[in-house]
Amino acid sequence: PNLNAVTLNGQAQATNTQMTNFSVADATGSGSGYNVTVAGDGPSGSAVFKQFCTVANCGSDPAGYVSGGKTLVANSLTLNSTSASFTAQNGSIGTAPSHSCNSGCFVDSASPTKVVSAATSAGMGTFLTSGYTASSLSLATPSNTSVLPANEVYKVNLVWSLNSGP
Fold first, then answer.
1. pLDDT in tens, 26-45
2. What is the mean pLDDT of the chain?
3. Is 13 exposed, middle or buried (0-12, 13-18, 19+ CB in 10 A)?
4. Are 49 and 66 contacting, i.e. CB atoms less than 8 angstroms apart?
């Protein structure tokens, strides 16, 4: 999901948006359990919010990030899944996976954060999330955030992974 624009005013701010629903599936069908993790994609993009050029020829790397550009600190973006749940889709068996971010999880860092877990013999088949609130994703913008030139924004790349587990 996209976050709303922030008007910088020298004060710390929180910008909220609704997490997009997603589905998970036990791809092996083995019922051995799994975890869903999210981490910033440092090798291919940026693990934290970093200065990014939205038009050709102002970014200094192939992805459009500005070399030596401004960044927000890691752990600025929080996912809260307190009201979210999973619904079994056609043919799913076992108990639904569970969300791990009911107290909030930071998702913009180079280290993976577990956001969903399915125990052994649970989560078999496909399950779809629902119930994320309008503030389930929250970006903390510090008071010293720098204003960027025209056609530049702060951008982060997140990688969601389905891993063996639990």
1. 867 777 888 999 998 877 78
2. 88
3. middle
4. no
